[in-house]
Amino acid sequence: MPASFRAQSVGARSLGARGVAVAAALVAALTLLPLLVVVPDALSADPGEAASYLLRPRVGELLTNTGMLFVVTVPATVVVGVAAAWLVERTALPGAGVWRTLLLAPLAVPSFVSAYAWVTVAPWLDGFGGAALVTTLAYFPFVFLPVAALLRTLDPGDEEAARSLGLSPAAAVVRTVLPRLRPALSGGALLVALHLLAEYGVLEMMRFQTFTTAIMQQYAVGFSDTSSSLLASVLLTLCLVALVLDLLARGRHRVARVGSGVQRRAVPAVLGGWTTPALVFLAAVVALSVAVPVATVVRWLLHGIAEGDPLGADLLQVTLSTLGLAVLGALAAVVAALPGAWLLNRHRSGLTLLLERTTFIASALPGVVVGLAMVTLAVRWARPVYQTVGLIVLAYAILFLPRAMVSLRAGLAAARPELSEAARSLGLSGLAAFVRVVLPLVAPSVLTALVLVALAVNTELTATLLLAPTGTDTLALAFWREASELDYAAAAPFAAVMITMSVPLTMLLRRQILEER
Amino acid sequence: MSELKILGVSAGYGRETVLEDVDLTVAEGTTTAVLGGSGSGKTTLLRAVAGFLRPGSGTITVGGRTVAGPGTWVPPERRGVGYVRQDGALFPHLSVAGNIAFGLPWPRRRHHDRVLELLDLVGLPAAIAERHPAQLSGGQQQRVALARALAPRPGLILLDEPFSSLDTALRTATREATAQALRAAGATTILVTHDQGEALSFADEVAILQAGRFRQVDSPRTVYREPVDAEVAEFLGDALLIAGSAADGSVTCRLGTLPAHGYPAGDVDVMIRPEQLTLTRPGAGGLDAVVRDIAYFGHDAVVELDPAGDESRDPLRSRVLGVDAPALGELVGVSVVGRVRTYPRVLD
């Protein structure tokens, strides 16, 4: 009997599970759609023409510019982010809670609003210097957030063990803390890099050319998909290089805490005479990254009101249409992310690994590439959907699906399969167990995912510029239009609404540090 | 409460067979401990009974009702089988009261009396009812998990290593509270464990599971004193195995001629538990020995003995009460208490 018999695990082979897998595979294919449109399009160009196009000095200049920005901004965000995280989480600095919030606040200010503020405050600051300054100030929280979350939970036991093995305090940090920070640091730096590659607003405002700005300009001059696709392919290649560098930098070893027992909090380091310089440093970071843009927006807002600029109706309408797109985009991204998130939590297989990789690659797609791909797709094969709400919502779903995935997976991890089993053995049907156990545990993370995506849509500029449906205005578009015409007072109200609506984002992210594992 | 009958059950995952043709009967209101090492198939057995794993063949009946068999499959929620896992698996979004009342029908979930009754049954204070699982100690979580499983009055309770994640002191207390609650509820119970002491002290019957088959199912005394073979004997506790020659209900070996049962005649292996070796004055026992080493535990002590005048022979090991522990290097007599167990000779 034993040879011929096969037993099955209940539920694993159900029709439902297969349906979820198919849905997840479809979504994965959808997220890679931009790649599937842009790359073959670039390859279809005549090789000689493509080569002569790509080998122009202009492309070299774009590469140099991108490289220069990388070399300055990535290390600068790492230094500022790590220093701030260490000061807030591991020292006895006064007001750590307040600083934690303030250091995340730059995420509530869209980077192009920050650039607008700096342009009006310091008009002499443009080109490379302005670009590097504004991107550093806007992006350092990408490093601060994961590093602070990790430092907060890092058990001091490792450091103590290192000290008792004869290492100096500094050597103990270098040899025990730094290796464990590696994934957080590398992940943060990757986010900075990808944002740099995708950035349009800041660089355009600072008149600093990179691939993204070049593609946008080319599009404005006249839609020629092949040359745009060529530039976009170079941009995509750079994004994938950043992904690979991150994978290499993360290392393969397990850095999570091993062993059991109660985890302890580290004793905060006493700064003594360094307290004042530390406070000055944090205050300067917050002043430059938050206070300057917010104060500028408020100043122009008051200026506009004093001049008697009308805002009311128009502002309200733009806000409502932005919210509408944000809600649709959030729903689309979260619904699309659900099957994959479920599959990644419940079934480990070759397929799910592929799915994970796909999401990872999708997270590197810049808005300009997604936008361009959607335009190409619509113009070539589906003219009627060009400049429709459906197309832009699809673009948002592709663009922000990885974000939704992250928080959905965290929520699904809380709804462990054992809990459903416990409910079943207490007499609940599969559906009842889902309603009474899985849903309550997952609901908060679904909500978080919806809010995160909606806020991202709220301030999305690049893809929106390419895909905005005719007659639809968004806060980012309206702001951009006014700011481009140097009507800073008219732009201010839109910026003010965007910043105000992004405040919940800061709160959500703050909770993420405090509740980290 | 119901009787559990497992007949010819084979089960596994994918193409891998974990349980092979297993039979087990747990009488109504009794507790059977399934004792096995990791990978022996204990959890697979529980999952098949609970309804989370469909056996490839065989029949499982609970209280006379077939829940799994050829052409029959009752889903877990309609089996009336409670399942307590190693980690408790409490619902993190519900209070203790919410957890305990979870499996009750809707109108009764509102009433607190059943919750309080169950908290009392598992020995927890009523004040704990509004707390959340994260605010409980490991032992409290296990007791709440047990109360939750008992609440719908299941015919059968399955305990999957419920004490193994607790530290020693907590484990004993939780085990006692659990045994008491199960007795009071009159529950038919299967306890799965890898801890010999736990299995022997907790259960009415102990089933030894190795490599997906039951090697022996008997009362705790029988499996310990009369294990079916040397391997089971060593699995259940310290065992001394020496060569001997059996005839007429006794066996002759280097410790003298001893009353024996098991394999009746000829060359045999003799299994003696260390606590069967008692220390006497030199010359008064079956042989004399020198105390080579002592591991003193307080309540008892394990004494390593070198048989006197015979360096080549393997040392003997005796477990004595702490108050009777000899001194290192002392010459003592060694005699054997009670019957010893014999097996067909496999020793060289």
TrEMBL record, chain A:
<dbReference type="InterPro" id="IPR035906">
    <property type="entry name" value="MetI-like_sf"/>
</dbReference>
<feature type="transmembrane region" description="Helical">
    <location>
        <begin position="100"/>
        <end position="119"/>
    </location>
</feature>
<dbReference type="InterPro" id="IPR000515">
    <property type="entry name" value="MetI-like"/>
</dbReference>
<keyword id="KW-0813">Transport</keyword>
<keyword id="KW-0472">Membrane</keyword>
<keyword id="KW-0997">Cell inner membrane</keyword>
<feature type="transmembrane region" description="Helical">
    <location>
        <begin position="359"/>
        <end position="379"/>
    </location>
</feature>
<feature type="transmembrane region" description="Helical">
    <location>
        <begin position="488"/>
        <end position="509"/>
    </location>
</feature>
<dbReference type="Pfam" id="PF00528">
    <property type="entry name" value="BPD_transp_1"/>
</dbReference>
<dbReference type="GO" id="GO:0005886">
    <property type="term" value="C:plasma membrane"/>
</dbReference>
<keyword id="KW-1003">Cell membrane</keyword>
<keyword id="KW-0812">Transmembrane</keyword>
<feature type="domain" description="ABC transmembrane type-1">
    <location>
        <begin position="63"/>
        <end position="249"/>
    </location>
</feature>
<comment type="similarity">
    <text>Belongs to the binding-protein-dependent transport system permease family.</text>
</comment>
<feature type="transmembrane region" description="Helical">
    <location>
        <begin position="315"/>
        <end position="338"/>
    </location>
</feature>
<feature type="transmembrane region" description="Helical">
    <location>
        <begin position="270"/>
        <end position="295"/>
    </location>
</feature>
<feature type="domain" description="ABC transmembrane type-1">
    <location>
        <begin position="319"/>
        <end position="509"/>
    </location>
</feature>
<feature type="transmembrane region" description="Helical">
    <location>
        <begin position="184"/>
        <end position="203"/>
    </location>
</feature>
<dbReference type="GO" id="GO:0055085">
    <property type="term" value="P:transmembrane transport"/>
</dbReference>
<protein>
    <submittedName>
        <fullName>Iron ABC transporter permease</fullName>
    </submittedName>
</protein>
<feature type="transmembrane region" description="Helical">
    <location>
        <begin position="426"/>
        <end position="457"/>
    </location>
</feature>
<feature type="transmembrane region" description="Helical">
    <location>
        <begin position="385"/>
        <end position="406"/>
    </location>
</feature>
From TrEMBL, chain B:
<dbReference type="InterPro" id="IPR013611">
    <property type="entry name" value="Transp-assoc_OB_typ2"/>
</dbReference>
<keyword id="KW-0472">Membrane</keyword>
<keyword id="KW-0547">Nucleotide-binding</keyword>
<dbReference type="InterPro" id="IPR050093">
    <property type="entry name" value="ABC_SmlMolc_Importer"/>
</dbReference>
<dbReference type="Pfam" id="PF00005">
    <property type="entry name" value="ABC_tran"/>
</dbReference>
<keyword id="KW-0408">Iron</keyword>
<dbReference type="InterPro" id="IPR017871">
    <property type="entry name" value="ABC_transporter-like_CS"/>
</dbReference>
<dbReference type="GO" id="GO:0043190">
    <property type="term" value="C:ATP-binding cassette (ABC) transporter complex"/>
</dbReference>
<keyword id="KW-0067">ATP-binding</keyword>
<dbReference type="GO" id="GO:0016887">
    <property type="term" value="F:ATP hydrolysis activity"/>
</dbReference>
<keyword id="KW-0406">Ion transport</keyword>
<dbReference type="Pfam" id="PF08402">
    <property type="entry name" value="TOBE_2"/>
</dbReference>
<dbReference type="GO" id="GO:0015418">
    <property type="term" value="F:ABC-type quaternary ammonium compound transporting activity"/>
</dbReference>
<keyword id="KW-1003">Cell membrane</keyword>
<keyword id="KW-0813">Transport</keyword>
<dbReference type="InterPro" id="IPR008995">
    <property type="entry name" value="Mo/tungstate-bd_C_term_dom"/>
</dbReference>
<dbReference type="InterPro" id="IPR003439">
    <property type="entry name" value="ABC_transporter-like_ATP-bd"/>
</dbReference>
<dbReference type="InterPro" id="IPR027417">
    <property type="entry name" value="P-loop_NTPase"/>
</dbReference>
<keyword id="KW-0997">Cell inner membrane</keyword>
<dbReference type="GO" id="GO:0015408">
    <property type="term" value="F:ABC-type ferric iron transporter activity"/>
</dbReference>
<protein>
    <recommendedName>
        <fullName>ABC-type quaternary amine transporter</fullName>
        <ecNumber>7.6.2.9</ecNumber>
    </recommendedName>
</protein>
<dbReference type="InterPro" id="IPR015853">
    <property type="entry name" value="ABC_transpr_FbpC"/>
</dbReference>
